[in-house]
Structures are given as C-alpha cells and as structure tokens.
Amino acid sequence: MKTRLNRGGAALVAAALAVSLAGCVESDRTSNAAAATESDCPWTPDETVDTTARIAWQAIPNADVVVKDLGLLEACLPNADITWVQAASGGDVVKYYGSGDVDLGLMGSSPATIASSEPVVQDVDLAVVWVHDVIGDAESLIVKDPSITDISGLKGKKIAVPFSSTAHYSLLQALTEAGLDPNKDVEVINLDPEKMPAAWQGDQVDAAWVWDPVQSQLLEDGGERILSSADTAEAGRPTFDLGTASREFIAANPEFLTQWAKAQDYAVKLIQDDPEKAAESVGAVLGIDPADAQKQFAGLTYLTAAEQAGPDYLGGKLADDLLTTAGFLLEQGGIEKVGTKADYAEHVDATPAESAAGA
User: Mean pLDDT in the chain?
Assistant: First the structure.
C-alpha cells in the first residue's frame, strides 16, 4: 500500500501574506534549502533556467516540504531566483495568485475547483500540474465526546473546519450523506487549523474536520476519529492536495516546470523508499519529531510522476473529479456555476509530470 498524507484549504477570505519558515525544531536540525549547492542535485543541474519563481507551500507532511528542505530546486536550478511563501490554506494560495504574489502553489482540490469555475475568483488563471497526494486519514472528523460514534450524533453540535478547503468539502458531503442539513442541524464554524486547539480546549467546538499536524494534536488531547476523507473517497468523492501554477507561468517556463516535477518525483520516491530520511526533512520544516512525521505519512497516498501522468489522474480522471466536486459545491452554494468536463480539463496540465516521468 502506498503511503498517504494531508493538505487542506481554508477560507478564501483569509488574512495577509505570511512568509514564515520553520525555525527551532524537534528534529535536531533546521531546513537547509538556503545552503543548497549544485552538488546536492540528484541529476545534472539545468543552468540555462534563470526565471523567478515564487512558490506557495503549506505545513503539510508531503513531498513538497521535502523538496523545500533538501533545497532540490535551488540545487538543480542554480541560476533561478526561487522564493518560498508559506500559506495557511488553499484559500490563501488562491488569494496570493489573485494579488500576483505567487507563480506556483499547493492547494486542495476544493479551492482548485473553485478557482477553476466561472466566475473566476479574483481573476485567477491557474492549472493543476501535480497531485501532491490523495487525501485519506490525514484529514478526519475528530469529536470531543467519546460517546459520539458516528456523524449523526453531532446533531445540534458545533463543528470547526476551514471553509473552502478539502476538509470542508468532505464534511459537507458526510453531513449530507447522513441526512443532516449543514445549515440547520449543526453549526459549522469557519476556523483556521492553528486556532482549533485553543477553541477545542476552551470547549468552543464539539468537533473538527482537519488535517495534520492539528489532527494529531486533537487526538492526543482526547479526541476520537469517527470519519476521514478516506471514507468520503470510498463514497465517490475523493480529495487531493494539488500542485498548481498560473497558466502564464506555465507557458513561459516549461524547462523550470520539468525540473520542478523531477524534484517532486524524487521526493515522492524518497517518502516511499526511505521514509525515515524523508521524515527528517518533514520534521525539520514543520518543527515536529521525525518519528511523528513518519507516522503521518500513512494518512496520504503519494503518486510518482508516471502514475500521475496516467489516465487515473492528470492524464484523464482528475478532470472528472473536479467536475464532481464542482457539482457538490454548487449544491452547497460554494460556486455559482458548474462548467463541463472540458472546462475543467483545460485547468489540468499533465505536461510537467509527463516530462518528469520520461526523464
């Protein structure tokens, strides 16, 4: 079984740009991207690329943070100007695209669908170029009261979730499947993950659908998992953490994106083949114990470039998944209009994954 892990989005109205990197950590070292040299590149560096790339990343234990920690892009593209911009959610990433602050960024399939639906949010014009992970138990519904064993027991309760995220999408789908009206039978509260532990401890919420590392914090604080995104995926509504890029950047920088995809593919294979080493990078960036990072890998499925380029993902079915997501979001009032499969296929570009797979 392939390893799994999480991401998530959040409110599209999230606050200002955050550019914070993990500093003091529990893994006995800090992220080393700034110290990368050409010798760190696992293949021959491409010195012809001199573009500027601003990359939005999130604190999720996946291959993207391994790429960041190992400095793979800096090493393999020594003449490129690369900036890493931290985002709290996919909603933030959409906002950064709209303000012209980033060229590439990680977001969940729900905010990616919103950004690909008409009318376009903040004039954002992006395409999905990578599947960072298929979300499973890494995003879950955690309850405080151990006597509540299924979602129907949350009727009349307060549930926290970052709005417009994959977690929000999964929560709404699960509530609907259980016959609960998200607007009447429960109180769904928009809350960023980092604010959830305080609300949890202050008895301001009864449950939360969230991803790691906050999910693990709530479980350690006595919470119980009753559902996960693996369950909603089995019900026909899978969610993903997706790598996106502005279509203008994609058109102007194919060589950069090939190297970027090769770096992501290298990091995915490191998680699959040497999870202990990959966990050191995740721990360094996220400020958690590498052993905990390695445990969290089980919550997501990581795909190689060859797998992503195939018909089940970027090469075909992902457009269907975005269309399905759009239909549900329309029902819930999250978007105004659902396009055709062809419309969503226009926002999926398998070229970088294909190039990396064939390299």
Answer: 88
Q: Per-residue confidence at 212, pLDDT binned at 50, 70, 90?
A: confident
Candidate CATH numbers 3.30.30.10, 3.30.70.890, 3.60.10.10, 3.40.190.10; the one for domain 33-136+238-358? 3.40.190.10
* Residue 139, Ramachandran bin (φ over 0: left; ψ between -120 and 50: alpha; else beta): beta
This prediction has a pTM of 0.84
User: 10 Å Cβ neighbour count for 203?
Assistant: 9
Q: What is the pLDDT of residues 296-307, one digit of tens each?
A: 999 999 999 999
Q: Where are the domains of the chain?
A: 33-136+238-358, 139-234
Q: Which two tokens stand for residue 7?
A: 């991401």
* Nearest residue to 183 (alpha-carbon basis) of 191, 192, 172: 172
Local structure of 62: helix, strand or coil = coil
pLDDT at 120 over 80: no
- Beta bridge partners of residue 107, listed in sequence order: 242
Cα 356 to Cα 6, 130, 176: the distances in Å are: 23, 11, 40
Token pair, residue 303, equals 């795909």
End-to-end CA distance of the chain: 25
Percent of the chain whose predicted confidence (pLDDT) is above 70: 88
CA atoms lying within 13 Å on the CB side of residue 21: 14
